[in-house]
Design a protein that fits this description.
The structure is a single chain. This protein is of the alpha/beta class. It contains six helices and eight strands, in the order ββααβαβαβαβαββ. The chain has one domain. It is 28% helix and 15% strand. Helix 4 links the parallel strand 4 and strand 5. Helix 1 crosses helix 2.
Amino acid sequence: MLLDSGDSIPFSIFASGGNSKLPFVSFSTIPGATCPGAGECLDFCYSFKAWRYPAAFFRQLQNFYLMNSKKGRDIIASEFKGLKLKKGKSFLNLRLYVDGDFKNINELTYWMNLLFLRPDIKAYGYSKSWKEFLIYDSLKLTFPDNYKLNLSSGSLHGANQDIKERMNLLSCTRGEFVAVKIAKEFDAPIGNRTREYNRAVRQAAKERVFVCPGLCGSCTPNGHACGSDRFKNVTIAIATH
């Protein structure tokens, strides 16, 4: 069993953010099985593509297992509390989650409580677990200031305007993050988005949007849009991939 050998674990719980696409620390778990609000997004979810890399899959599986026991959650909490800031930095960016989502109200509460302990961590994420967030809010629980929620498109609740409006009123909600389909001829590799790509995304979104360049942290000179109060209520869009 994973927790029977001195609590040693085979994979790091938090990815270090050592790649150009995502330079932030991140946490992931198994997609699909942890996504109660998933709808049409399952048809284009990029997380499943990561399973061609064994280490990515087994980190997700390990974290899924850890999240399902008190002992495992204690291990994750210990690792979270031990996350270190880089030299000269006053805060650490954390993406919660890259793969997977808040499976239930207990997991959402667990993470919000941890974030209260580390105001020097600026966390953000893209979630479709909208009912879980609304339950949390209905219980008069407070969202930490250092968590920014992006309402991810493809949600099971996306067509419910009442739920969407209530989600947009939550103190933690930054705004919507939508994935749109564009013609393959206009697609462009991450890090080399063209004007044609940006135009195609804006046209497909059918509203005024800020186009995501695909490389987290590269979109503005003063931090990333998805975790910024300066982009409050601004819809951010990307092509499905």
